Amino acid sequence: MTTTATGVLGIDIGGSGIKGAPVDLQSGQLIGERVRIPTPAGAKPSEVAEVVRQLSAQLGGQGPVGVTFPGVVRGGRTLSAANVDKSWIGLDADRLFSEAAGRPVTLLNDADAAGLAEARYGAGRGVQGVIMLLTFGTGIGSALISGGQLVPNTELGHLELDGREVEPWASAGTREREELSWKQWGKRVTPYLQHLERLFSPDLFIIGGGVSKKADKWREYLEVSTPLQPAGLQNEAGIVGAALMAAERQDAADHTPAVGRRKSD
Ligand code: BGC
Questions:
Q1: What pLDDT shows up at residue 261?
Q2: What EC number(s) does the entry state (predicted)?
Q3: Residue 198, Cβ neighbours under 10 Å: how many?
Q4: Cβ–ligand 1 contact at 109 (below 6 Å)
Q5: pLDDT single digits (tens) 170-185
Q6: What is the pLDDT of residue 174?
Q7: Residue with the nearest Cα to atom 4 of ligand 1?
Q8: Measured between alpha carbons, how far is residue 217 from residues 30, 81, 211, 222 in Å?
Q9: Whose CA is nearest to atom 10 of ligand 1?
């Protein structure tokens, strides 16, 4: 595929910034500097689409674009909106972004994108079994990958434990708002990880999101028997995973016999 030479564009929609860069999918590295545009206040669909248009125009390239979204994504539609405007729920965001970018867009959940990137190029590289990535930022995202295959939209940040939802209790945003020490935060996250261990028996936990670059501060406070690693690609995992998914989808479409192709492919 020709996209490897110039890179495939990945765009990561976050609560405070929308970041994009072309990605070299051989190495999982960004090609050049990533560009960041602040997320429009309220993160309404039309305004976010305008940023996707700008990034796509500025960063160039001809191929597909991968875009992450901080909510459930199925069949190109955004189906939940825990930390963004509620008008995303049920929206055909894939089409909205494809029209904005003027190129085919593949949309996927932000944590799923980070998980795919970490499994391929980062902390999970070479791990054969079950990888569970958790991102701690404004929300808590999750990705479950087994033998390289992603089970999308696991949404384990919304799990209820001890009578409360985990996300508003243990996210990095909550840690900052409540001015919790890393030790206090670890006391909230540890029972959550132990619960996930009991439910999924992962071979590796990867801790991503904003906290991943401060692993030396929290590592000792997360007490689990499963091996645990901070994300290797840190803030870039979403961009890389989005580009990877877009390229894989394009490859699959290129190899689908025209006869068997659906109109939407
Ligand atoms: C959303 C997830 C998302 C996570 C991190 C949660 O509130 O429900 O879909 O992955 O935040 O952005």
A1: 54
A2: 2.7.1.63
A3: 8
A4: yes
A5: 999 999 999 999 999 9
A6: 97
A7: 141
A8: 27, 30, 9, 11
A9: 141
